[in-house]
Amino acid sequence: MRTPRMGIGLGVAIMAMAAATIGRAEPAARDGAVEAASAWLALVDNGQYGESWEQAASFFRSAVTKPQWEQTIGGVRPPLGQVSSRVVSSAEYTKSLPGAPDGRYVVIQFTTAFEHKASSVETVTPMQQPDGTWRVAGYYIK
């Protein structure tokens, strides 16, 4: 016969196993998301704004039209000049973001130096798609 104490112990063991699985998944998620963000940023760096829109997550594409994106990013990036350096300063896994549907996200901050702006922070948020790929769902530069 199971006692309440055994049920609690089993529940704690299951929670610990689930936490261990999530813990292992998070570094893999971060790695995949950083790789996707870096590839997407390369498109933006090369002025391929339309292609960056096409490669973005469907959530991104539903929030902004391709012409809007090309106009907005085309007004922001060229004055900064070429990228001198870009380093990941943080990458945080989350399942929930304000204004976005629940899902699997990694909020990545890059410390970036441009030719005409020595210090900036780019925040790129890839979202895992139903097919398992990571695609950028948000971009912000400060």
Characterise the protein shown here:
The protein has 142 residues and is an alpha+beta fold. The protein is built from four helices and four strands; from the N terminus they run ααααββββ. The chain has a single domain, classed as Nuclear Transport Factor 2, Chain: A (Roll), CATH 3.10.450. It has a four-stranded antiparallel β-sheet with strand order 1-2-3-4. A hairpin with a 5-residue loop joins strand 3 and strand 4. The protein starts with a helix and ends with a strand.
CATH H-level superfamily = NTF2-like, domain 1
Structural class, from secondary structure content? Answer: alpha+beta
The helix/strand order is HHHHEEEE
**Largest sheet: number of strands, sense, barrel closure:** 4 strands, antiparallel
What is the CATH topology descriptor?
A: Nuclear Transport Factor 2, Chain: A
Q: Distance between termini?
A: 61 Å
Q: What proportion of the residues form beta strands (DSSP E)? A: 25-35%
Overall 3D geometry?
A: globular
The total number of structural domains is 1
**CATH class identity:** Alpha Beta
Q: Taking strands numbered 1, 2, ... along the chain, how are they ordered across the largest sheet? A: 1-2-3-4
Mean pLDDT, nearest integer? 84
Under the CATH scheme, which architecture would be assigned?
Answer: Roll
- Show unreliable segments: 1-25
> Any idea what the radius of gyration is?
19 Å
Topology readout:
Layout: H1 4-45, H2 49-55, H3 58-63, H4 66-76, E1 83-94, E2 105-114, E3 117-128, E4 134-141
Antiparallel strand pairs: 1-2, 2-3, 3-4
Helix pairs in contact: 1-2, 2-4
